[in-house]
Amino acid sequence: MKLKLEMIKRDIAGETYLVPIGEAAHSYNGLFALTEVAGFIWDRIPDAVSESDLVNAVLEVYEVDRATAEKDIKEFLGKLREMGIME
Fold first, then answer.
1. What is the three-class DSSP state of 3?
2. How open is the CA angle 80-18-49, to the nearest 5 degrees?
3. What pLDDT sits at residue 6?
4. What does the angle CA 38 – CA 52 – CA 50 come to, to the nearest 5 degrees?
5. CB-based contact 71:58 (threshold 8 Å)
6. How far apart are CA 55 and CA 74, in angstroms?
7. pLDDT value of position 83
8. Which of 7, 39, 80, 82 could form a disulfide with 18 if both were Cys (CB 3.0 to 4.6 A apart)?
9. Strand runs (DSSP E) across the chain, as ranges?
């Protein structure tokens, strides 16, 4: 899995955000708020080969059923692709 735009994850006042840097800072003005699970997934995207890798990582840490994890990850990755952040 590959990210197209440079973003860094930052915790600000108890909330987690993606902050555009480099060229992404020219395209996006503002921060992107993440839930706890979205931040967890974000941290694992660079090392994941497939969505299944992310699902398995979530299932190891969070008490959620596979169907819900798959749906939520697909939705999150879809948003990243829609915004041009991820291939």
1. strand
2. 50
3. 85
4. 90
5. no
6. 9
7. 84
8. 7
9. 7-12, 15-20, 32-34
Q: Going by C-beta distance under 8 Å and a sequence separation of 6 or more, which residues neighbour residue 7?
A: 18, 19, 20, 21, 24, 32, 85
Alpha helices in the chain (DSSP H): 24-27, 36-44, 51-61, 66-82
Q: pLDDT, tens digit, for every residue of 62-72?
A: 999 999 999 99
Report how far apart, in Å, the C-alpha atoms of 16 and of each of 31, 34, 44 are: 10, 5, 15
Mean pLDDT value across residues 17-39? 87
Q: Mean pLDDT over all residues of the chain?
A: 91
Q: Where are the beta strands (DSSP E) in 13-87?
A: 15-20, 32-34
Q: Which residues contact 70 (CB under 8 A, 6 or more apart)?
A: 51, 55
Q: Is residue 80 a contact partner of residue 86, using CB atoms and an 8 Å limit?
A: yes
pTM of the predicted structure, to 2 decimals: 0.86
Residue 3's pLDDT is 81
